[in-house]
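Page 42, continued from yesterday. The earlier attempt failed because a stray header line got pasted into the input along with the sequence. Redoing it now with the clean sequence only.
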Amino acid sequence: MTTEPLSRELALEAYRASQQYSTRVAAAEALGIPCTTFKSRLYKAKEMARQGLLGTDAVLPGFEISRISEGPRGTTVEQRQERSGGFNIPEGHAIKGVSAFLDADGRVIGQWVKTKEGERDPVYVADIIRKAFEGFTASAIEAPPPRADEDSLTVYPLIDWHVGLLAWAEETGENYDLTIAKDIILRSMGKVINASPPSKHCVVLGLGDLLHFDGYEPVTSRSRNFLDADGRYPKVLRTSVQMVIATIEMALARHENVLVRILPGNHDDQSAVAVSLALGLYYSSHDRVTVDDSPSRFWWHRFGSVFLGAVHGDRAKMKDLPLVMAHDRPQDWGNSTYRRIYTGHTHHERRLEEGGVVVTSMRSPVAKDAYHSFEKYRSGRSVYSETYRADGSEVAAIQFNL
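This time it went through. Structure tokens are written below.
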């Protein structure tokens, strides 16, 4: 059975109804025809418009007139898909390659531009760091707190803060985002700092994974595991810097001298460097703050007879770390009587002694994300401080559980 061609009048009627009403059902009801009939007419109308049989009365959405010609059947108006504006490279990307579609004579008909995440522009990163300081005034040189113990040092580990982690309570049992993280972690750090002895010296020690992800893609740096992320990368980087600065400022109210070290983790290999450089610039003229911006993944520090070390913990087993400590710093090893190494990464508390060195893995203060909630992983949440005397004694250990 041959299908009758659709008349120009019915085609225009279907097209105009599709433009007037928000749904095809409403348009069909307005014309008094079944919805299937309307859809068929609209399809044929579009085909007729492409072939130039509807003149300029029905320029399809997303199309443009490509040619108007005169012939035996009268005026024919042909349409083609409307060309978009110029191609804009996505933010943070660089051109990876260009492919061209050629005609028989070798002329370019079309091009495909492939992009990839590019190297981060140093000027752009510097602008992110500059904006991180907008919420702060220049740090004033405060008078040292009274009654500071000259021969003691307190360590404040910043364990796997994962700033930028997103969790939904219906999946994980607790909501968590940038705002919640900043509030909970800084209030907890304020409690542990105020409860710690007023030693003359202190260390604000980032144990890695300060940020949950390391760039515009919410994935881990090396294994490329997908992560639930809250906020764009510049916003997360800015918040991380602000949180560490707030912690340092609280420490300055309790201790005379503050040493800062930010170690990289498997979630923030590159961002840890940016945070460390930002803190170094911010406190460059501060007499009581020293920022250690070494690119090493290990941190070693001797205070009298106490020899301390730290590493994130993703690349070395805890039992192997004492030998690394002895090899890297034999003189400090020989001049110390108490040796201690801090690690993070696992979010679990674990303590072992190997070769006279106490190695500790510590809890994180962050909520669990969907991945860890769906798997077997469970752990408590804590913030810590530990205070040592130069004679080799550990005199205080504070732990607040969230």
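Notes: The chain has three domains: 8-81, 85-119, 122-401.
Reminder to self: strip header lines before submitting.
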